[in-house]
Automatic annotation (TrEMBL):
The species this protein was found in: Robbsia betulipollinis
Transmembrane segments: none
Pfam families attached to this UniProt entry: Glyco_hydro_15, TREH_N
Name under which the protein is recorded: Glycoside hydrolase family 15 protein
Molecular function, one GO term: hydrolase activity
Length: 603
């Protein structure tokens, strides 16, 4: 069986009658602060400026009738193919019409010294054959009529204002403005073989605005591409799945919020877990779980700078007060849940900002934090005294609280003694003991942590295992299974034979084609959770079931191979349609861990 690779090309994905593109029709562009989603038909339908968590300047993704967008589309019927440049987050789309072919090159630009101190979204049209005429439309979001954008003259420039965002539409001479109103711009541009034209938006929030030359912006497309390729070239993995691993690493890099080091769970809000459903969440925050798993993924592929920045950010949040499930990307508590009043993707309301999980407690945060610290040290790094003290207090808190019910890894409303939560508590205490034995943590409470670790393990074996089901249950006396229990293998939990039997039961009861539902009863509420499938692959590989793991991996990535390698949170197992927020960090990092396990890399 040949190793799969990210799709080099994607056939044109046209909008449905309501104006929505399939989610798999989007590629992502980013600069280390914000992320834009560009559709196959040349429309940027999502861009929050200046940061991932900012309000959107373009939001047609969630409101096809009234939302904002930046569209560059041929004025004649076309077909489109697209790909990322190799080892880069620069995206290319080739449009073919009866009159010719042209390439759209898109980059969220960086500068020679890294991230620019402004947002610069650059789009270059390159003529390949014949002549292609494009229509350019820019419509600014009104955020459900909460703001009213407008243009104002500033010297020779027309500056747009969208609430606190100040910006410019810049372009080369061949772009002709046909109409300009406060709501947006209509323009046209043609390119013949060998010609090129460049268009860009430069923007900032509550800050003076630089006006770069369009030639400088065009040159930064290639400089940004070189920077991406240099970064990707340093990643440590040379196995058969390198193309897939690098693409996922590049997607994760887009979610690293460089001003703070935080890692966003995803770049969007409120993309539904089921079309027409109401399980819509804002993922533009940093979860301890996602941060921990991502730091470990970066460490595995030797992206040490990103791992260190993310780990430092995480420790700083923990040092400032009681541990939370998630934090704002700038640090501190995430805002409360609020309905912003948009129609939602394909009518799937509500569209929200904020996240209710900020007030929950999950025992899993202890395991995530300590696993991250242990991996950081295992790769030859050192904990400082303040971080060691913080971790010691967290180990004590875990020892004190593990017997309580919690919200679990899936952030459920009903507190229970979730099996995965208990395993995470065991994981935290096991890693704390190992760190103390290695001289990285104070040993004052080491023996207590050891005793509680063993009590947690005994509690799990007594209360959470069902011999009748041949599996660990979702929680004691439940009749359901939980696919996240595959992670227990990576965590080093004992009872390997019981975990192997649990994986078999999860495949039987939660499997759907190449994918898996999160836990029992989700078949009618949401799609399959992609990270669960890659966790299952990783677990089987670590248990020595390499052939079975590889076959499952190949089957999953083949079923997802109808985009450009940007994965969502979930998928419809019947149609392959993406569901949930994207790019979804948890999916991409789970793929990296699966590939690493398949190559024989220790967790």
């Amino acid at each position: 069986m040949n190793a799969p690779h990210p799709s080099a090309h994607l056939r044109a994905t046209y909008r449905d009658p309501d104006g929505f593109l399939p989610l798999e029709g989007y590629g992502a562009l980013g600069d280390g602060r914000s992320v834009a989603l560009s559709g196959t038909d040349g429309s940027i339908d999502w861009w929050c400026v200046p940061g991932i968590g900012s309000p959107p300047l373009f939001d047609r993704l969630l409101d096809a009738r009234e939302g904002g967008y930046f569209e560059i589309v041929p004025d004649a019927p076309f077909e489109a193919t697209r790909r990322y440049r190799e080892n880069s987050n620069v995206l290319e789309t080739v449009f073919s019409t009866a009159g010719g072919r042209a390439r759209l090159v898109e980059s969220h630009n960086s500068g020679s010294a890294g991230r620019l101190p402004w947002s610069e979204l650059a789009r270059r049209l390159e003529g390949l054959e014949g002549q292609v005429r494009f229509v350019v439309r820019i419509v600014f979001s009104r955020r459900a009529d909460a703001i009213n954008p407008y243009f104002a003259s500033a010297g020779p420039h027309d500056v747009f204002h969208a609430d606190r965002v100040l910006g410019l539409f810049l372009h080369s001479d061949g772009v002709h403005i046909e109409q300009k109103e406060d709501t947006g711009i209509l323009a046209t541009v043609s390119v013949g073989a060998g010609e090129h034209e460049t268009l860009a938006i430069v923007a900032g929030e509550d800050e003076p605005l630089v006006v770069p030359d369009i030639g400088e912006i065009d040159a930064r497309i290639e400089r940004s591409d070189a920077a991406w390729r240099e970064w990707a070239g340093k990643l440590r993995y040379e196995g058969e799945f390198r193309a897939l691993l690098v693409r996922s690493a590049l997607a994760l890099k887009l979610l690293l919020y460089s001003p703070s080091g935080a890692i966003a769970a995803a770049a969007t809000t409120s993309l539904p877990e089921r079309i027409g459903g109401d399980k819509n969440f804002d993922y533009r925050f940093a979860w301890i779980r996602d941060a921990g798993y991502t730091i470990k993924a970066f460490l595995r592929i030797r992206a040490q700078e990103e791992a260190k920045a993310a780990f430092t950010w995480l420790l700083r949040q923990l040092q400032q007060g009681e541990e939370k499930v998630l934090y704002a990307l700038e640090g501190g508590e995430a805002p409360a849940l609020e309905d912003v009043g948009l129609d939602g993707y394909r009518g799937s309301a509500p569209v929200v900002t904020g996240n209710a999980a900020t007030s929950q407690h999950q025992h899993g945060i202890y395991g995530d934090i300590f696993e991250t610290a242990a991996r950081f040290v295992a790769y030859g790094n050192i904990l400082d005294a303040r971080s060691a003290e913080t971790l010691s207090h967290l180990a004590d808190a875990c020892a004190d609280r593990w017997r309580r019910k919690d919200a679990g890894i899936w952030e459920l409303q009903e507190p229970q003694h979730y099996t995965m939560s208990k395993i995470s508590a065991w994981q935290a205490l096991a890693r704390a003991v190992e760190l103390a034995d290695g001289g990285q943590l104070p040993t004052t409470c080491r023996d207590r942590w050891c005793r509680e670790r063993d009590r947690v393990a005994a509690w799990i074996e007594t209360h959470c295992w069902s011999e009748a089901r041949g599996a660990y249950l979702f929680y004691p006396e439940s009749d359901e299974l939980d696919a996240s229990l595959a992670l227990a293998v990576r965590f080093g939990f004992d009872s390997r034979e019981r975990l192997r039997r649990t994986l078999d039961a999860v495949d039987r009861e939660l499997g759907a084609g190449a994918f898996h539902y999160r836990y029992g009863g989700m078949q009618d509420e949401e799609g399959c959770f992609l990270a669960c499938t890659f966790w299952m692959v990783e677990a089987r590989a670590l248990l020595g079931q390499t052939d079975q793991a590889r076959a499952a991996f190949v089957r999953a990535v083949a079923a997802l191979d109808h985009g450009v390698g940007i994965y969502s949170e979930m998928v419809d197992p019947d149609t392959g349609a993406y569901l949930g927020n994207l790019p979804q960090g948890l999916t991409h990092l789970a793929l990296i861990h699966a590939v690493s396990a398949l190559s024989g890399d220790e967790p």
